[in-house]
């Protein structure tokens, strides 16, 4: 449960806001880029690598412990994300897609881990860089497998569409493939984690203030409601965190497939 509170005077409470996403360098006088979100992102990478190492370094015929968890994640990503979009090419891209799914999932879950309590994806730079990596792979694959002309033709071609209609259709589909898809890929993840973090901070600050800081007969009910809503919203936020990791990896597989197959 998050307990960050913004106090403007000893007698009043103010809802948390954008200050939740503003971080000073970890070390005074140190690099400005070395902030809490960067440290959490590095920790997330270590966690993902450690889990994969523990699961797959010495696999056994009968999986147990971390291997069971690792194989469950692998099968989930393969069956629910990779194969529906990539078909026979799914296994070739499982390393990337599993890494994306686990990385985003750990990023998101950091928002409900005590003492950390910040989802990395709520800082827009992180999902943007990850989405740009997938975007670059999509363009590279499209040009490599089909050439520039063939790739563009595969995107804009629509069977049965009259020639005169391409003047309207082609700009829209090209904008969707090269601009909108990138924007929606990272903004969906960022917006959900940003909003969820704000909501959790709001309800937890209400509960902390009215139950622990300024307990009064009139405010006790509000404080208890804030605590209950924090618990409920934390459970709901964990579901959203998993869902957003799934959707981000799903879109990544769709974009990679579009590059391989030369279609939108």
TrEMBL record:
Identify the domain of life.
Answer: Bacteria
The record's principal subcellular location, in a coarse class, is membrane
Under InterPro entries, the record lists: ATP_syn_F0_a_bact/chloroplast, ATP_synth_F0_asu, F0_ATP_A_sf
**Assigned protein family:** Belongs to the ATPase A chain family.
Q: PANTHER family under this entry?
A: ATP SYNTHASE SUBUNIT A, CHLOROPLASTIC
Pfam families hit by this protein: ATP-synt_A
Q: Does the keyword Endoplasmic reticulum apply?
A: no
Describe its function: Key component of the proton channel; it plays a direct role in the translocation of protons across the membrane.
Q: Which gene encodes it?
A: atpB
Report the SUPFAM superfamilies cross-referenced here.
F1F0 ATP synthase subunit A (SSF81336)
Q: Which organism is it from?
A: Nonomuraea marmarensis
**Sorted UniProt keywords:** ATP synthesis, Cell membrane, CF(0), Hydrogen ion transport, Ion transport, Membrane, Transmembrane, Transmembrane helix, Transport
* Transmembrane region(s): 38-57, 93-116, 122-143, 189-211, 218-236, 242-260
Name this protein carries in UniProt: ATP synthase subunit a
**Topology of this chain in the membrane:** Multi-pass membrane protein
> Could you tell me where this protein is found in the cell?
Cell membrane; Membrane
Q: Does the keyword Membrane apply?
A: yes
Q: Which NCBIfam families match?
A: ATP_synt_6_or_A
């Amino acid at each position: 449960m998050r307990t960050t509170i913004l106090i403007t005077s000893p007698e009043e409470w103010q809802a948390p806001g954008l200050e939740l996403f503003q971080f000073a360098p970890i070390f005074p006088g140190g690099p400005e880029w070395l902030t809490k979100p960067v440290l959490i992102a590095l920790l997330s990478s270590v966690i993902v690598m450690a889990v994969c190492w523990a699961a797959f370094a010495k696999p056994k015929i009968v999986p147990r412990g971390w291997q069971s968890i690792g194989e469950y994640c692998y099968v989930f990503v393969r069956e629910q994300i990779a194969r529906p979009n990539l078909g026979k090419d799914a296994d070739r891209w499982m390393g990337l897609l599993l890494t994306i799914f686990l990385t985003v999932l750990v990023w998101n879950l950091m928002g409900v881990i005590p003492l950390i309590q910040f989802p990395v994806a709520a800082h827009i730079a992180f999902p943007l860089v990850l989405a740009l990596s997938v975007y670059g792979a999509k363009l590279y694959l499209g040009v490599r497998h089909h050439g520039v002309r063939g790739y563009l033709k595969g995107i804009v071609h629509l069977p049965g569409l009259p020639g005169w209609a391409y003047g309207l259709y082609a700009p829209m589909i090209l904008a969707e493939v090269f601009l909108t898809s990138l924007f929606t890929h990272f903004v969906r993840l960022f917006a959900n984690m940003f909003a969820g973090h704000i909501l959790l901070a709001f309800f937890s600050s209400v509960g902390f203030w009215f139950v622990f800081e300024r307990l009064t007969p009139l405010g006790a009910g509000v404080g208890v409601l804030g605590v209950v809503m924090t618990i409920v919203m934390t459970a709901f936020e964990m579901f959203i965190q998993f869902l957003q990791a799934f959707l981000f990896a799903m879109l990544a597989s769709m974009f990679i497939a579009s590059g391989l197959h030369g279609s939108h």
